[in-house]
Amino acid sequence: MRADAKRNYDRLLAVADEVIAKQGADASLREIARQADVGMGTMHRHFATREALLEALLRSRLAVLTQAAITLAAGDHPGDGLISWFRDGVTFVQSYSGVVDLLADALADPNSALHASCTGLRSAGARLLARAQEVGAVRGDLDGTDLFALMGALGWINDQPSFSPRGDRLTNLIASALGSPATKRS
Amino acid sequence: MRADAKRNYDRLLAVADEVIAKQGADASLREIARQADVGMGTMHRHFATREALLEALLRSRLAVLTQAAITLAAGDHPGDGLISWFRDGVTFVQSYSGVVDLLADALADPNSALHASCTGLRSAGARLLARAQEVGAVRGDLDGTDLFALMGALGWINDQPSFSPRGDRLTNLIASALGSPATKRS
DNA sequence: ACCTGAACACCGTTCAAGT
DNA sequence: ACCTGAACACCGTTCAAGT
Lengths: 186, 186
Hints:
Distance between the termini of chain A: 63 Å
Mean pLDDT of chain A: 95
Shape of chain A: elongated
Structural class of chain A: mainly alpha
Low-confidence stretches of chain A: none
Oligomer: homodimer
Largest interface: A-B, 29 and 29 residues
Order of helices and strands of chain A: HHHHHHHHH
Number of strands of chain A: 0
Largest sheet of chain A: none
Helix content of chain A: over 70%
Number of helices of chain A: 9
């Protein structure tokens, strides 16, 4: 990468982090380019889509969370591990406001720049979940995608100003529902 | 209301229902005006905001759901009533895709055209919840807003193509978690 | 190679002009 | 009273022209 290209790339990323942290994941890309003193074309080549930009912003944090699932799955207490990883996932999904919708879309869309990271995270989570289920710490009628759906749902709650104050309590509610046995009625 | 005004109003509403049913609550208002053969100014006077348009579309269904809560709260089985009302709420929130965000925003914003309907629905739900708690059918550490948050979260899940197939199962999971006692640990 | 910035097709809002 | 449609300030995408 040419030196000026590298410089533009870094500036864009730094400005994007600021703006998106303040305005959410649907912030204006034009505004980011403006603040980075970069033309619209430059913005577009470095980050062809909004997802590509967020992938770059989230990459390292996503990798950490994925690695954590792998480590916990190999550990001695997969039950406790799953619950604490679940909480970390809920926290992660709040990296920027509005990012939870982007991640859910990315899971469904193989062409999304975030798709691979999402499925990778899901597999790691699914393995940890399976271990927790073997130990009998978590109900058996759930899979990795269910886990994602619930983390996303709690992320959505935290994204709503009217609901975010109860985010922690409702996370507890759902986290403990994961552990309870599948009470089938009829 | 003048005859031509009334006609435009009705056309806008009919077209909006079609378009929003197909494209979601964030469909283009311009496109709706276009399909209704109406100028942009006309659109704007009849429905000053997107919320006003959705309020008109949802009004009657919202009233039905609110009335249901009142009826069930006066009934003999508030515990079962709450759970079934909770499910109805999750269904309602899917009236149109994307409407759940609008409703959550409306709860926080007193100026929203949907604000009154939302708070009205919440109060009715809160009364039903209180009755269910008196009977001991539902854990005590929840209020009407928590109920809304959970219904919204499940609506969010149903809005995501990757998650919607598990919407019913996760609704069951959460519905049964409402009934379980508050298991405090430590 | 990489960047710029104007052109394009959209959006929601506003408002002068018409009937 | 009510409607129209152009004007405005935005958006993301594309692309000819520059270095």
